[in-house]
Each structure stands twice: as structure tokens, then as C-alpha cells.
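go over this record:
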Amino acid sequence: MPTRMAINLSINLNKVALLRNSRGATNPSPRVAAEACIAAGVQGLTLHWREDNRHTRVEDVYDLCTLAKDRGVEFNLEGDQREELTALALKIRPTQFTLVPVTPGEVTSDHGWNLPEQRDVVAPIMDRINAAGIRSAIFMDADAENMKFAAATGTQRVEIYTEPYADAFGTADEDKEFARLQACCVEAAAQGLGVNAGHDLDLRNMPRIGKNIPEMLEVSIGHALLADALYLGLEETISRYLKVCAGQSVEAPTTC
């Protein structure tokens, strides 16, 4: 079994932008939040730029990508297959570009790419991203059988959709969903893919991943982390998330 290293934590700052947009002003600032995250020790920043601009805006992408490069942390740009997003990635050259399928009207991302059926959508974008020297990733459901199809797109990494595991955590289905996630990560690595994960990961369900999935390289966490920061403060919250990324158990705030 590979040696267990701490998983890199990339903080998704979309919800900071969403709160800012709700008042049509500049507070809270994604940049100020990003600076606080970097100061607290995170390894990366993530933004998902949607076509409707409901949270992240294109100027946020420029700003945080530049900040991440200046501060020596990674910047992960997420989004769908629209040409303006791929063109932006090729222009600003983030550390990583994660291609995520989007269903019109969805509240948040809720499924991975349907492969091999959508290979003709995914593979040409991966070719362009790879040729530019940007690390490529695609969003996939936790299905070990589909990792060979993911690898066939030319992507360098997969980001595994973890909501089914998170939703099952603490229930009779937890072990089944964790085993499915674990098997998917093992197979992804066997296919030569780096493994990321994201969606509904939090202080309660992350320690099991940190302890038992050595293939996991990075998690992108936004909603839960920023919600916990309302109770704990941002610096303390990040400290706890860094610990669970290393497989440690921590106290989680009582939220309801």
C-alpha cells in the first residue's frame, strides 16, 4: 500500500463570492478570504466559474490565479465545456483545470461525466489543456469501472464526486459507499491517474478518507468549510481541516 501523505487542501471560495454578490457590493472579498486561507496554510485555492456568474466572476478568476502564483500555492479553475472557459484557462494558466459537467438549473454539481459517451466533449479539451502545460482533471462519479474511460480522455487526474459517501456517512450505507469510493481511487491510480475529490466533505467524514485512501492527492472543500468558519473562525477552521486531511479526528461544531 502507498505511504499515506497528508491530502492537499484546496479551498473553494465560491460561497464567499456568492455572499458578496447578494449585496451587490465588494464585501466579503474573495481575495481577502484567499489571503487568509493562504496565511493559514492551505495548499490551494479553487474557483468554479459558472456561465450565470452567480458567485465567481471572471475578474475573481484573474485575481485569485495571480494571487496564488504570487504566494506559491496552487490554483484550480473549475467549470464546464464552454469555449470561453477553456480559452480563459489557456490564457491565465492555472495550476489545474477541472472540467465539470453542468446541467442547466442545477443548484450545485451533482454528477460526473458520462463516459465513454461524452468522450468527444471531454477529450479535445483535455488535449488543449495538456498541450498548454496545465494539469488536467475531470469530474467523475465514484465508479471504478469507469476509470479506464476517464484515462482514455487524456486527463491527468480525476476529481471523484463524493456526495454519495458524504450522504451515507453515519448511516448503515456508510461502509458500502466508502468501499465504492476506495475501490474507485485504487483503480484510478492503477490507470495512471492522479486522484482528487470533492463535494460535501467535512470535518466528520474526512478523517476516514485521510486515514484509508493513500491514493488521494487533493480535496476541494468550500461550503462545509466556510459554514464551519461561521462558528469557529476561518483560521481555526482551516487548522482543523488540515488535520483531517492528514487523517486526524477533530471536534466538529454543532450546527443544528
